[in-house]
């Protein structure tokens, strides 16, 4: 019993942390879609410098893309 409880606690913590992380990431992506400054900042962190046309295209792509876990599943090739 001394070994089972910590293992169960670890598993519950990992699963809970995963779902909290997914929820947080979805909220950040939703904010980024409507906030061009945040999108520009992320692009600069990745080493890209987007001009106005590229920024509009990136925002359009994010709006058209279904949220993770929603919509159609990806097809395997």
UniProtKB/TrEMBL annotation:
Q: Does the keyword Ribosomal protein apply?
A: no
Give the transmembrane region(s): 6-25
Q: Where in the cell is it found?
A: Membrane
Keyword Nucleus: yes or no?
Answer: no
Q: How does it sit in the membrane?
A: Single-pass membrane protein
Q: Which GO terms describe its cellular component?
A: membrane
Q: Which InterPro entries match?
A: UPF0154
Chain intervals for the UniProt region annotation (Disordered): 55-77
Query: Hey, which family's this protein in?
Result: Belongs to the UPF0154 family.
Name-wise, this protein is YneF family protein
Which organism was this protein described from?
A: Paenibacillus lemnae
């Amino acid at each position: 019993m001394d070994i089972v409880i910590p293992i169960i606690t670890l598993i519950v913590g990992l699963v809970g942390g995963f779902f909290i992380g997914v929820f947080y990431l979805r909220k950040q992506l939703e904010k980024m879609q409507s906030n061009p400054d945040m999108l520009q900042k992320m692009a600069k962190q990745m080493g890209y410098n987007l001009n106005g046309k590229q920024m509009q295209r990136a925002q359009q792509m994010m709006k058209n893309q279904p949220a993770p876990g929603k919509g159609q599943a990806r097809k395997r090739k």
